[in-house]
Amino acid sequence: MSKSPANKPLTYKDAGVDIDAGNRLVESIGARVKRTHRPEVMGGLGGFGGLFALDLARFDEPVLVSGTDGVGTKLMLARTTGQHAGIGIDLVAMCVNDIIVSGAEPLFFLDYFATGALDEALAAHVIHGIADGCEQAGCALIGGETAEMPGMYSPGDYDLAGFAVGAVNKRDLLDGSRVAAGDVILGLASSGPHSNGYSLIRAILDTLPGALETTLDGVSIADWLMQPTRIYVKPLLELMRKLPVHALAHITGGGLTENLPRVLPDGCGAALSRNSWSLPAGFGWLQHAGNISDDELMRTFNCGIGMAIIIAESDAAAARDALETVGEQVYELGHVVSGGGIDWR
Q1: Cys staple from 115: which of 44, 88, 158, 232, with CB 3.0 to 4.6 Å?
Q2: What is the pTM of this model?
Q3: In 3-state terms, what secondary structure has residue 210?
């Protein structure tokens, strides 16, 4: 085996990858990750794959539903503000909120954390947030990957991706086929922009030095923007046990304008009222600061509505009561109508 030109034996650590740091990270997060485990989890961290035994007594005609996502350029704002605590929750939320739309219960989650040089404390902070998100969603964190790639990322940068799997019995699958004209469309409040629209947000902030310290309703713009994405899984699973929900729509990039039509069958549209909820102050600030039109605002951001629920008119009041009882803020946005598209009234 040849030596390096300088006759100095090289190690992986010399090249920028610290295996021992990675091992210490796994050790440090073990107890926190274990708290997310469900009875179906087999084994622990450190295996080549996560093991999960599907409960066929509960899911006798199972359909597996999967989702993957990242956090996007909100990561850059996390670095600017130093606020990394909620980023892990964001990662889980973007995946499990998509899965619940099919009526599926999220079962397990895996994460991918990539960086140039591993900062153990920062990585542990982010992964603890992922575990928090998994607990909020009731799914198990059964594995993940931490990748050090010197030269791929600038110092201090990292990226995240997540992958979730859920299950639903075929008879309970939500696919839009139950939706009919006359159904009521309810909206659940968001906690802020969630994890969407941050490229536009950063472009606005670039024109306004010091804007992150601006205060609205006693909260700084920085704190409002870094609020973690709300996870709607447990309230919606409980609602679906009580009432026949017709469809759900996760309101992400594209807003209500783009996401609600994804769960409407052919021949159905939605009549929505812009006055059915108040635009949160933070979105009003973004609109003013960026001179953003109403239509652009509505198709870029969630504008205060993170999840839409379509349900029969006869069940709408009961659904609202059930959701408000568990702490959700609920708005009646409008109705399903014959036709197509979104009609703002």
Answers
A1: 158
A2: 0.94
A3: coil
